[in-house]
Amino acid sequence: MKRFNWRDLTEIVGIIAIVGSLIFVGLQLNQSQEIAIASQYQERASTAVEFYGSQMENERAIAEKGAQIAAAARAGITSPELRDFVKDRSAESIGMWFYENRVFFVMLDNFHYQYSAGFMEDESWDAFRQQLQDELSRESTAAYYQDYGFKLRTSFEELCEQILKETVAESD
Fold first, then answer.
1. Domain ranges in the chain?
2. 3-class SS at 117?
């Protein structure tokens, strides 16, 4: 039987320490990358909200967007819900409705991303989810989502679809 060798033991302990350190550094790098991605997503959402907010202050942009949506509805290339919603509304009213909903969905999409990435507490997300549920129960918001929801992240779209199904089930 071989004699116990302190040198071998210290080498093994040293190797384990190095491997442990490398694992720790890898985890730190992964966390730093997740934080960076979440920050980038937050910045993109903020930029989009700022852009759409500036459009909401521009009467011409509002009217043009409203006229564009109304024309698409008249041409039959929108959902029936959207056609019903825009009927007998002014271009300005339709345009403002579009930009208000765009800002709302961009913000909630970002909040959902932050929550999914672990950067938002359950309690905060639950309040935002309830707000999303309340808004999607409104016909005008549901009409917006049906025609423009495809510009959102897939996981957020799935959540919206789930909420819409729940809303329909509750109303039956």
1. 42-171
2. coil
Cα separations in angstroms, 102 against 22, 41, 51, 79: 44, 16, 10, 17
Question: Which spans in 120-172 are helix H?
Answer: 122-136, 139-148, 154-171
* Helix residue ranges per DSSP H, the chain: 6-56, 59-74, 80-86, 91-116, 122-136, 139-148, 154-171
Q: In terms of Cα–Cα distance, which of 109, 105, 114 is closest to 38?
A: 114
Contacts of 79 (CB under 8 A, 6+ apart): 143, 146, 147
Block mean pLDDT (10 aa), the chain, length 172: 73 88 84 82 87 93 96 93 92 96 94 92 95 93 89 91 86 66
